[in-house]
Amino acid sequence: MCARAGHPTVLVARSDAKAKGAVLAVERSLERAVGRGKVTRLDADAALGRLVAVSQLEALDECDLVVEAVVEDLTVKRGLFADLGRTCRPDAVLASSTSGLPIIECATATGRPENVLGMHFFNPAPVMRLVEVVRTALTSDRTAGIAHGAAAAMGKRPVGCADRAGFIVNALLFPYLNRAIRLVEEQAITPDDVDAVMTGGHGYPMGPLKLLDVVGLDVSLQIQRTLHDTFLDASLAPASYLEHLVRAGHLGNKTGQGFRVHAGR
Questions:
Q1: What's the pTM value of the predicted model, to 2 decimals?
Q2: What letter does residue 206 receive in the DSSP assignment?
């Protein structure tokens, strides 16, 4: 999205092999967009020409905006943000794409919390227009303005929100998803029937069980646990069937099996 918006873009992965794999994923995404008539061949080639993929964090030293997208583990994120605080330009905006972890914990690790905020993109990011821009009590107006402007330049709809568990979308969404899992867990209704009711009866673009497989059951479990731990509401405790599937390694689309088996994985 950054490269398509016209920005020189640096992608940093954990290894050279991961960096090459990420570029291939971007190429495949652009090929699909070209095939659907969403992007011209010229624009796709130009976007790839703006993208550099490396495995060294030092490559970010001249970037204006850095968006973190590592594993949903607060200890890992804090370690990375501490490194970004030392590596990046003093005026660089540092953003987390976390779906629910506290941004302030990342911000205080940097030594420059005024430059830090959340930019929560939704999956699949090239298609979904919404971006939650999450301010902490320490985020500066300048930092928030740059994040809103960057999201808009990518063709997204930025929505500001406070640094609270679940932000806006997940605070509303995950109690509903958790209840849908419990219906299946209690054998009251099948995943297909749950999804059919919500898409056909309520007009949702995707049913809750299909959505959970897209998001990833491990990520979904982490979000549900965060909501439960924050608000201490028994109804927010993760459904036991969700925990069972995660323990079994059935994480959704990315592993080929979640609430359904996904062909081609």
A1: 0.88
A2: S
